[in-house]
Each structure stands twice: as structure tokens, then as C-alpha cells.
UniProtKB/TrEMBL annotation:
InterPro entries: Pyridox_Oxase, Pyridox_Oxase_CS, Pyridox_Oxase_N, Pyridoxamine_oxidase_dimer_C, Split_barrel_FMN-bd. FMN binds at residues 60-65, 75-76, 81-82, 104, 139-140, 184, 194. Its cofactor is FMN. Substrate binds at residues 65, 122, 126, 130, 190-192. This is Pyridoxine/pyridoxamine 5'-phosphate oxidase.
Length: 212
């Protein structure tokens, strides 16, 4: 198999100044609706990139759980690697790789911790098994075997067998407040359409076409 021979043309759609919305959140919502309607697997999946104290980037896939005019919301264990890196440097990037639609969205911004009330509201809406998994997993930390992990899960299931499962004190969430949002639409001959929305001092958005 020759990796350099794996290629295809991008011919599904085009993006122009005429069909862009002035507000990047509205533009994102439109594209997300298309992704959901197209029955893409995990349309809310996004790659979350953070940087540690040495400047080493790391990435992982997280699900987008809320979107409004403030930003993009996700939840995580506050002891996780991403949360610890955000504590030292809250600059963050999100990437939505909608390959099937030949589209990408890249968000640049800062991650702001959510209030406990918002975290609790989301946590209590999760399936019970997901709540228990949050209690069982010391996210990003070493574990000797899957057996140990499952034993911890079983212990938590017994511990919280009755009543509501409480919010762990190590569970939190972030709102990614964007400074820039890029929309990428694949084009023929690698002449893709790229538009960057950049937030201005008055909170308006400047739109610039980028070279592919």
C-alpha cells in the first residue's frame, strides 16, 4: 500500500461569501444540523487540543454538549490531563472533522470553567451508568488492569444503589469562548474554500477568505 497514492477529489459543495452567515454561531448551527440530518456518526464529536507546561500539545475526542452565543461547552473530570493543562494555560482549540461532508470547523479560544450549577444539571441528566463511570474512573491516571477498573465500577454501583448519584467534586465543565472560528469546505483540485471569522473589540466578527 502506497500512502501517497491514497487521494480523492472533494466535489460535494462549495462555500462562498454569498452563502456565509454573518454570525459564526449561526453558521456552525447550520452545518451541525446538516451533519445530524446526514446521519454522520457522532456529529458532535470534536478534537480538543491543549498544551502542557513544556509546550507539548495533546489531543483527544470529546462530545460537544451545549452551544450558545457564549461558546462551545464540554464536560470532563477535572483531574484529567486536559483539565490540568487548561489550569496552566486555558488557550484551546476544537476541531470538528466532518469528513463525509467534506467539511471542517476549527475553533480557537479560551476555556472558561462552568459554574457548579451548570455542571450538576448536566451530570444529573446523564444515564446512571455514565454517572457511575465518572465516579469509577480517575481519568488519565494509570490503572493496573481493566479488571481493577470494572471492580471499582461495581463498587460504585453498590455504593450508590439507592437514590440519586451525587455530583463528584472532581467533575467539571468548560465553555470555550472563541476568538476565531474557521469554516473549511473541500474543493476540486485541492482548491478548498476557507473562511475565518475573527472576533473584534466590539464583539462583531470580521470574515476573511483564506488560501487553501
Amino acid at each position: 500500500m502506497k500512502l501517497e497514492d491514497i487521494r480523492r477529489e472533494y466535489l460535494q459543495d462549495a462555500l462562498s461569501e454569498d452563502n456565509l452567515q454573518d454570525d459564526p454561531f449561526k453558521q456552525f448551527e447550520t452545518w451541525l444540523e446538516h451533519a445530524v440530518a446526514s446521519q454522520l456518526p457522532d456529529p458532535t464529536a470534536m478534537v480538543v487540543a491543549t498544551v502542557d507546561e513544556t509546550g507539548q500539545p495533546s489531543q483527544r475526542i470529546v462530545l460537544l454538549k451545549h452551544l450558545d452565543d457564549n461558546g462551545f461547552v464540554f464536560f470532563t473530570n477535572t483531574g484529567s490531563r486536559k483539565a490540568q493543562e487548561l489550569k496552566g494555560n486555558n488557550k484551546i482549540s476544537l476541531h470538528f472533522p466532518w469528513h463525509h461532508m467534506e467539511r471542517q470547523v476549527i475553533v480557537y479560544g479560551e476555556a472558561k470553567p462552568l459554574p457548579t450549577s451548570a455542571v450538576a444539571k448536566y451530570f444529573l441528566s446523564r444515564p446512571k451508568e455514565s454517572q457511575l463511570a465518572a465516579w469509577a474512573s480517575a481519568q488519565s491516571r494509570p490503572v493496573s488492569s481493566r479488571k481493577v477498573l470494572m471492580e471499582t465500577f461495581a463498587n460504585m454501583k453498590n455504593k450508590f444503589a439507592k437514590g440519586e448519584i451525587p455530583l463528584p467534586d472532581f467533575w467539571g465543565g468548560y465553555c470555550v469562548v472563541p476568538t476565531k472560528i474557521e469554516f473549511w469546505q473541500g474543493g476540486a483540485h485541492r482548491l478548498h474554500d476557507r473562511f475565518m471569522y475573527q472576533r473584534q473589540a466590539d464583539n462583531s466578527w470580521q470574515i476573511t477568505r483564506l488560501n487553501p
